[in-house]
Amino acid sequence: MSEPDAPLVELRDATRSYGAVRALRDASLAVRAGEVRALMGENGAGKSTLVKVVGGVVRRDSGDMLVDGRPVDFHSPHDARDAGIAVIYQEPTLFPDLSIAENVVMGYHPLGSLKRIDRRAMKRQVQGLLDRLGVRLDPERPVRGLSIADQQIVEIAKALSFDARVLIMDEPTAALSGAEVERLFTVVRTLREQGAAVLFISHRLEEVFTICDTVTVMRDGAVVHDARIADMTPDEMVRRMVGRELSALFPKQDTAIGAPILKVHRLTREGVFFDVSFEVRAGEIVALAGLVGAGRSEVARAIFGIDKPDAGHVEVDGRRLPAAKPLAAMRAGIGFVPEDRREQGLVMDLSVARNATMTRMGVLSRFGLIGGGAENRVAREWSSRLQLKFHRLENPVRFLSGGNQQKVVLAKWLATEPKLLILDEPTRGIDVGTKAEVHRLMSELAGRGLAVLMISSELPEVLGMADRVLVMHEGRLTAELSRAEADEESVIRAATGQVLEAAA
Amino acid sequence: MSVQATPVPGPDRVEGAGARRLTEWVFRVRELGIVIALVLLIAVTAILEPRFIDANSLRNLALNASIFAILAVGQTLVIVTRNVDLSVGSVLGLSAFLAGDLLSSNPGLALPIVFVLGIALGAACGLLNGILVTWGRVPALVVTLGTLYAFRGIAFLWTDGRQVNAETLPDAFLNLGTDSVLGVPFLVLIALVVVVAVGQWLRDYRAGRELYAIGSNPEGARLAGVRSDRRVLTAFMLAGALAGLGGVLFTARFGTVDATAGTGYELTVIAAAVVGGVAIFGGTGSVYGAALGALLLGTITSSLIVLRVEAFWQQAAIGALLLVAIALDRLVGLRVDAALRRRSARRAS
Q1: Domains of chain A with bracketed CATH
Q2: Does the beta carbon of A182 lie under 8 angstroms from any beta carbon of chain B?
Q3: Which residue from A246, A249, A241 is spatially nearest to A219, judged by alpha carbons?
Q4: Which residues in chain B are contacts of A106 at CB distance < 8 A?
Q5: Which CATH number is B34-44+53-333 given?
Q6: A403-456: pLDDT as tens digits
Q7: Domain ranges (residues) in chain B
Q8: What ipTM was estimated for this complex?
Q9: Residues of B in contact with A87 (CB under 8 A)
């Protein structure tokens, strides 16, 4: 028997650690029927971990979870779904080979006679959902090749495809246009009237103030504030999320800005980014801001020669780089710290020393053999310069903390003495202390004449570190803002496509 | 080959209809391509050696391909989930010897019981593979490479150098390998039933569709609430069961069985699936394609034998076909990707 008035879903003092990182610390949260609750916090504050615990994707280490006031234990996302909990995850979970309709109903296909899938009913149901969301998409088209916005629509349709009593949305609007967001909100309001509980995560404050009734703010894995939206102001919300003054965190030095190092000329990759042109000068930190899925990382990958652009080119020091040749980009003096250091930045099972000197193998080797002595000497030098904390140089990097792993990636590139360093989300998943160290290091490098192109989803980082901010929206540059012009509002406005004139 | 479909303009066309037609067309072309290759191959061989297309020879072609087609269907179930089963040849060997041993020592045994036992033995082997892959979190390539040797080893221990001969087997059983119903060999009929049954299951049942989802995006399948481990286990078990069925049919067709029955079949079977358009990274392909692939490989071998081409060239031909099929798939895939991306881009801008 469910207790009357009990929240539909509730977490009590839940904790969850990934190795040494405590992603959730005694987090409590309750969502009641007919309530839309915002979950706010900076990247890395623990929002996504909380969502995964409620969605049955990861198990909590301790604490309780209750549905309708009764304790539950989810062993898989299937259990969560059976309990009436639908989740829209931040990262794409679609099946590229299958049709939109099958993606939406996977595992819960409407059945006809002999338990066969009723394709007509499936198509009708999904078409109905897509109509409700106001998009013109063919349910029988394969998902492969859909734009990020359309993929997100499919994710939303998937979550709405069954009568969920609890709907959790982890940044559902990141890639959507204004009209699409409005439709989604209409659907959310209908659900609220029908007595569903909604947990809404977004970085757009105005959306939160439009649609939500209550808010939970998280910082460093813990819940720091719980209030009614009516009692909050945007300023207070930001202050509680950040929890400290901005200026203290970002030790930005003033530097002399020199000649252009990187020139990107009309770079285009069909369906991903279009006509992107900009330059980065020596000693300058340029931030590439925008929402998740705006095409920022893809531009960086094209500059470094990982993906081949369909049109346009890249120049370093006035010399044109060949397309899709990372080695040429390295030789021209580009270093690239990728977004996902575990998958792309490091070889997790190799030693600290080997990882840190990976870009220098050719120089350190003699007759094709790498001497451990030379390797360790170079690695030791860089690890002391970056204040890297490790047990032994020979240990695999997987045993280091996230922040120290990132320092190894940085060491790897700094050892090549680059002219341009591309940093994709340089401080994601790093503790606050190390974050400040990385920021200080960036500032210092720029001070010595290095050109830095930084991609960041953390607005305070963008505003605190950048000399110039480029903003992307759905694959296009929508604004170029000087340090003086850039503030929270101007960047978010450009990132959500509310600026019409495109920047040069 | 061009995959640039020209979409028909119409006033009320929803975006994506063109894209859908494009991909549907590609899949149809994929299976049609094998049929065309098959017809060409038979035609050319028949011109050089007319006896190749007399009734008896065609019958043999179909008979030879039947067992491979059944195994290729099982293999498809596993490959679609982004796994692979290298042990099917050894499983076939075990179940073939089981059928032969049972019948030569108890000639009166009812044939359905032999089939059930053979299939059950295969299913048990498949279950073991599945458990090691899903619970043990060991890559299927390694697990089934191990069981390939292990099952073969068990076959050697069990047979202890013995061989089952046709003389010791009951005629009713051996006739299964040669008899026809309405002119269609019994073996071919069984293969057809298996292909159609599994084909429908993969197309029209939740469990079947979930196999594609798992192969297309394993993490996504889990998040969508698909019980991936259970499904993968089922796929391995079915692949084992079909290899077991293949083993019983092997004994019925050839009459002579020793510990080496089915050695090397696994590679032919995987080749058949890949030639038939089953993507080795999972998510796409059909059992119809895989069965046609088995037929094509068998026909090439027969055709080269008929044309008295040396054995070495037979293998080289199969290898070349495999490379051509993979290259074509890759090429077509890239073109389709680009076309789909362009269509979405047009909508977005």
Answers
A1: 9-243 (3.40.50.300), 247-333+418-495 (3.40.50.300), 350-413 (no CATH)
A2: no
A3: A241
A4: 209-210, 213, 221, 224, 226
A5: 1.10.3470
A6: 788 889 999 998 888 999 999 988 876 766 677 888 888 998 999 999 999 998
A7: 34-44+53-333
A8: 0.84
A9: 223
